[in-house]
Each structure stands twice: as C-alpha cells, then as structure tokens.
Amino acid sequence: MTSTEQPLSTQQSPGDRRRWFALAIVMTAAFMDLVDVTIVNIAIPSIKQNEGASFSQIQWITAGYALAFAAGLITGGRLGDIHGRRRLFLIGIGGFTLASALCGFAANPEMLVASRILQGGMAAMMVPQVLSIVHATFPAHERGKVFGLFGAIVGLGAVSGPLLGALLTEWNLFGLEWRPIFLINLPVGVAAFLLGRRYITESRAPKALKLDLVGVALVTLGLLMLLYPLTRGRELGWPLWGYVSMAGALGVFAALVAYERRKAARDGSPLIELSLFRVKSFAAGIAVQTVFGVALGIFFLVWTLYMQVGLGWRPLRAGLTGVPFSLAVSTAAGMSVQKLVPRFGRKVLQAGALLMAAGVLLYIWEAHRYGLAIASWQMALPLVVMGAGMGLIVAPLTDAVLSEVPQEHAGSASGLINTVQQMGNALGLGLVSVVFFGVIGDRLTRAQVGPAFVHGFQHALWWVAGVMGVIFLLMSALPKRPAQHVEGAADAPAVEREPELVA
C-alpha cells in the first residue's frame, strides 16, 4: 500500500482541510449525475423535434442510461473497493465528461442513444465511490453533518435540474438548441477531475469482494431481451421474434439465479446475494423498489410528452409546472424520516403509496375535465399530492428494507436496492410503448396530436395508479417499525443514489 492509500477504517485527521475539498468534489459529481438525469427528460420533446428521433429512440435515450447504470452499479462499487475509490471516481467522472461531450455533439439519434448508454456506464463507476470516499475520509462523528449536506445537494439537484434543462433549451445558446444540456457538464467535469486528483485521498476496502462479470452479463442480456422488443415491437407490428425474445429473457434470469448460487458457494462474492431473499422484509422491499421504479419510469416520460407535445407548452413552462411536485417531495421526505416514521412506522410508507395514487387519480380527472385548456396552476394540486406521497416513501424505504438484513450483508443489500430501482425505471420506460404510444396511434394530423396525447396520458396514469396499489399491498410485508441499519452501513458503505424525483 502506498502512502496515499488507506483502508476503509482510516480517516484523515480532523484538522486536515483537504477532506472538505474532497467532499465538495464528490458532491459536485453526485449533483452533476442527478441533474443530468432530470435535465434530459425536459429536453426530450426538443430532441425529437429537432433530430427526428423515433418514439423508441426517445425511450432509449432515457432507458439506455438507466439500464447501463443499473447493470454496472454493484460492479462499480466493487472495482472501487479493489482498485481504489479515488482511481475509479476519476475514471468515472472522466468517462462521464467524455460521454457528455459525445451526447452534446451527437450527429444523429443513434449516436445520442449510444453516448447515453456510455454515460450511464460511467456514472456506475463514479456514483458508488461518493459515499465510500465519505466513509473513508470522515470520522464517524462528522458523518451526520456530511450526510445532511448530501441530502441538501440532492434536494437542490431535484429542483434545479428541470429548470436548468428548460432554460438551456429555451435559450438555444449559440444555436445549439438542446445540446447545452450535455455540454454544460464539460467544464464541471474537467474541474472535478483535476481537483479530485489533488484533494481526494486513495482508499481501498481491507477485504473486497471479487467481481462477477458473468452475473453482470446475464443481467444485461436478460434486460435487453425484455426491453428491446417492448420499445421496438409497436413500430414493427409486434413480430414473433419479439415475443420469443421476451420469453427467452425468463430463461436467462433463471440461468442467472443458478449461476449466482454456484458463485456464492465457490468464492462468496456473487453479484446478487440470494440468501438475502430469505428475509421476508428484504424480498418485499426489493419488489417495492422494482415496481416503484416502473411507475416512475412510466410517469415522468409520459408527463413531459403530455405537457410539451400534447399541450404544446414550451420547456420553461413545463419545467416551472413541476416545481410544486419537487418541493412537496423534499418537504414530505424530511418530515417522514424525522417525525412520522419514528412514531407510525410502516403506516407512513403505506400512506405515501395511497396518497400518491390519490394524486394520480386526481390528475386523471383534471386532464379529462379541462382537456387541452388545462393550466399549470390547475395541475399544482395533484402534483403536490403526488409529491407528498412520494416523499413519504423514498426517504424511509431503504431503512425499512434493511431493517432485518444481517449486518455483514448491509452493503450488498443497499447496492441491490438501488440497482433494482434503476432496472424498474428502465422497464417502466420500455412499457411506455405499450401504455402510451400504443394508445395514441402512429399517424396523427396536427389537430389530432393534442387530444391523442391527452387521452394517452390518462391511460398511462391509470397504469401508474394500479402500480401504486400493488406497492401498497407489498408494503404490508415490511417491518412495522423500520430501524436504521447504522452499524452495517458504517462497516460496508452502501451504493446510494436518490431516485429521479422530477422529469
């Protein structure tokens, strides 16, 4: 071990100011990643209009990122444990910056999709290192303050992402139209890379798990076999090979389970720790995270298309319309963790699912009643109700899922929670072909676009409401009084990522 490397249990001295520079750098990277997800959604209609992207390409601009991120998330964390968190962070942020440049200068939709997949893969290298570096850099008594700052940065990213995306798209800087939403990452990424080399201290895990590249390949193959036919099937008339591919995905997932069992028995470092699923609350929580990701994937893409294409709103108006939702999520999330969950336990999460479903149903009613004449202020009430429900879920859910997990598996369990949420998000984006595009039709006149998108939006929201009902039922298997898994989390840093809160 060189002089710049240290095990997880060793932190820099409290008097060392370098650790605060390191914190600012990794927080900037986390902020850049979160904003990049939310900033893209608001620009999707502009990308479709200016580049002539098909509906399936639009789905892959977002789903490709989520799929690559999910597939590489656990592996990215393990690579950092083995080869050094600083090294993997720098590789990740350097690659993320390069991929952002490729996105910004994409010559066609195909190149943009490929660049987004690369960007998601690089985020999977970068993001897992953030909290690992914090654990390795700060003593335990300072981490509460640090995680409070982290939560504030996440909240700021959730609110500012859509607005920044809307402004950059509206301003059309240098005639580049939507491209500045990606190019803005370049100066930030270069600065973070250079400063990270100087101020972040290297660290490794004293005993890191081995890589499971076969497991990653099987997960990726299974998801591709499922998602590709979903996104392309409608445009191609639902060919037979699509159904064969989706059925074959089940066989790939079965092979994954068999391989992971052998991997666990052989060297104890599988991609997926299957023994965790014997814990009832964890298995239910994983199902909740996956299905919740599906709901978010459907809603946010359909929502932005509804506002900008169906209603004909400009990106800035659409971005401002989502502010009440973001504020409601942030407010309810803070209340749920600090005041509500300690008193009411699991009922808070179930109330969140019902509240979110109520907001969705209210949105359906308003979209039907007001049609194309609906105003932003009329959307505020359902969005606030939905945001409040979502806030009650997202903040305490991880602790609820981890409550009964053995401490030695806390890190693996946390990584898996975030991975399946991203996989669910990618699946939801794929299902948009069925629940939205499959309803509005292919050949629409200009006069038909608005009514068709309004109808498709309502249809998709019925699916979201149904999914929230399923989530409510699954939550009954969570512990009545979730407890924070502090010791396990401290010993095995989780791969953390906040859900994409806004479109």
Automatic annotation (TrEMBL):
Gene3D superfamilies, per the entry: MFS general substrate transporter like domains, Multidrug resistance protein D
Keyword Cell membrane: yes
Keyword Plastid: no
Membrane spanning residue stretches: 20-44, 56-76, 88-107, 113-134, 146-168, 180-196, 208-228, 240-260, 281-306, 348-365, 377-402, 423-440, 460-478
Molecular functions (GO terms): transmembrane transporter activity
Domain Major facilitator superfamily (MFS) profile: 22-484
Compartments (UniProt record): Cell membrane
Keywords per UniProt: Antibiotic resistance, Cell membrane, Membrane, Transmembrane, Transmembrane helix, Transport
Pfam families named in the record: MFS_1
First-listed, main subcellular location of the protein, grouped into a coarse class: membrane
GO cellular component: plasma membrane
Membrane topology, from the record: Multi-pass membrane protein
GO BP field: response to antibiotic
NCBIfam families reported in the protein's UniProt record: efflux_EmrB (TIGR00711)
PANTHER family in the record: ACTINORHODIN TRANSPORTER-RELATED, MAJOR FACILITATOR SUPERFAMILY MULTIDRUG TRANSPORTER MFSC
Name of the protein this chain belongs to: MFS transporter
Highest classification ranks of the organism: Bacteria, Bacillati, Actinomycetota, Actinomycetes, Kitasatosporales
